[in-house]
Design goal:
The protein is of the alpha+beta class and 326 residues long. It has 2 domains: 2-117; 121-325, no CATH class. 40% of the residues lie in helices and 32% in strands. It has helices at residues 2-29, 31-54, 61-85, 91-117, 237-249, 311-325, and strands at residues 121-136, 139-143, 149-154, 162-175, 183-194, 200-207, 217-219, 222-231, 257-264, 277-284, 291-298, 305-310. The strands form 3 sheets. Strands 5, 6, 7, 11 and 12 form a 5-stranded antiparallel beta sheet that branches. The chain has a 4-stranded mixed beta sheet with strand order 3-2-10-9, with no helix packed on it. The longest helix is centred in the N-terminal third of the chain and has 28 residues, at 2-29. The chain starts with a helix and ends with a helix.
C-alpha cells in the first residue's frame, strides 16, 4: 500500500514538473507579450491612482485595486521564474524578465497605495423590519402623496400619537479594502420622491440610526439607518404586517392606505430623536409603485453611499423581515 502511494506521488510530481517546463518554454516564447502585459498593468495602475485622487469610480475602486494588486504579484512571480530559468546566453529573455519584475513590483505597489487612498465606504446588507412597541410622539403632520397637508396630530388633537410602529431600516456595513477602519461621525439622509408628480420631493431630511435613534454615530461593523415607520393604527402590528403582505403580493387587500412616517430631527443634530416631531404620508396601496426613496449615508472619513429604491419594494422587504422575526 505504501509503495503504491509513493508511486502515485512520484507520478504526480513528474506531471507537475513537465507542466512547469512547458510553462517556462511558453514564457520564453511569449516574452514580448509579457512585456506588453507589464506595461498595460503599469498604465492601469497609474489610472487607478488618478481615479483615487479624483474620487471617481469610488464603488468599484477597491475591487479594481485588489485585482491589479494580484495581477502585479502574479507578474512579479512569473518574471522571477523567467529570470531564474533563462540560459546565460539569452540576454533578451533575461532583460524582459527583469523588466517584468520591476514593473510587477511597481504596479502592485501602486495598486496597494490606491487601496489606502480609497476611503471606507458603506455597503448595503439588507432591509430590516422591527417592532418598536408603543411610542409617544408630540406632533405628527399628516400629508397626502401630493404633499398637501390634510391633518395634524398632537396631544391636543389626538389621532394616534401613541401607537406601536414597525421600523423599516436599511442595514449598512462599514468596509474598507485593505485595513479595518471605522466610519467616524456617520450620518444619514432620506428623501421621498413622487415620480407621478414630476419627481416632486415630498420629504427630505436627516434620519437617525437604529441605535438609540442617534443622528451622528461611529460605526465599526454594521448599523441600521432608519428609513421610516409604519404606524399600527387600531390593530396589532402583526395583523397589519400580514394584511400588507397580502396586499403587496396580490392575494387580496383589505387596506386602502399604508401610513409612512418619517421622524424629524431636533434642532441640535448631535442629540438623538426625542420623538417630538414626525411627518406622515397616507399612501394608497396602488400608488406605492410611484414613490421612490433616495438615501445617502456618509461620515467624516468615508465616501458617500447613495442609492434609490422603489417604496413598494422597501415596504415589501421590511414586512417580510418583520414577519420572519415575529
Amino acid at each position: 500500500m505504501l509503495t503504491l502511494i509513493i508511486k502515485y506521488l512520484l507520478n504526480l510530481l513528474n506531471y507537475f514538473l513537465n507542466f512547469l517546463v512547458k510553462c517556462i518554454v511558453l514564457l520564453q516564447v511569449f516574452t514580448v507579450s509579457l512585456q506588453i502585459f507589464a506595461l498595460v498593468l503599469l498604465l492601469i495602475s497609474l489610472l487607478l491612482t488618478c481615479a483615487a485622487v479624483l474620487k471617481k469610480f469610488r464603488h468599484h475602486l477597491p475591487l479594481l485595486s485588489f485585482i491589479f494588486l494580484m495581477l502585479g504579484l502574479v507578474l512579479f512571480l512569473v518574471s522571477i521564474l523567467l529570470v531564474l530559468t533563462a540560459s546565460p546566453s539569452s540576454g533578451t529573455v533575461t532583460s524582459y524578465g527583469y523588466f517584468g519584475v520591476v514593473t510587477g513590483i511597481v504596479g502592485a505597489t501602486i495598486a496597494l497605495v490606491d487601496a489606502f487612498i480609497v476611503k471606507p465606504y458603506f455597503k448595503k446588507v439588507r432591509i430590516t423590519g422591527n417592532n418598536l412597541g408603543s411610542i409617544n410622539i408630540r406632533e405628527v403632520t399628516v400629508k397626502d402623496t401630493g404633499g398637501k397637508e390634510i391633518g395634524k396630530c398632537s396631544y391636543y388633537y389626538p389621532c394616534y400619537y401613541s401607537s406601536s410602529v414597525i421600523q423599516c431600516s436599511l442595514r449598512l456595513r462599514s468596509e474598507h479594502f485593505a485595513v479595518p477602519i471605522y466610519a467616524r461621525n456617520a450620518i444619514g439622509w432620506v428623501a421621498l420622491i413622487n415620480k407621478a408628480y414630476n419627481d416632486i420631493e415630498l420629504h427630505s431630511g436627516y434620519t437617525p440610526w437604529g441605535y438609540s435613534h442617534h443622528y451622528v454615530l461611529d460605526i465599526v461593523g454594521e448599523e441600521s439607518l432608519v428609513l421610516f415607520f409604519i404606524p399600527c393604527t387600531n390593530m396589532q402590528c402583526g395583523d397589519l404586517a400580514r394584511q400588507l403582505r397580502d396586499c403587496l403580493s396580490g392575494r387580496g387587500c383589505n387596506l386602502r392606505n399604508v401610513d409612512i412616517m418619517f421622524p424629524v430631527r431636533p434642532a441640535e443634530i448631535t442629540r438623538n430623536w426625542d420623538r417630538g416631531i414626525a411627518v406622515e404620508f397616507q399612501v394608497p396601496i396602488n400608488e406605492l409603485k410611484n414613490l421612490r426613496l433616495r438615501i445617502r449615508a456618509g461620515g467624516e472619513n468615508t465616501t458617500i453611499y447613495e442609492d434609490e429604491f422603489e417604496l413598494r419594494e422597501v415596504v415589501t422587504s421590511c414586512i417580510d423581515d418583520y414577519l420572519r422575526r415575529n
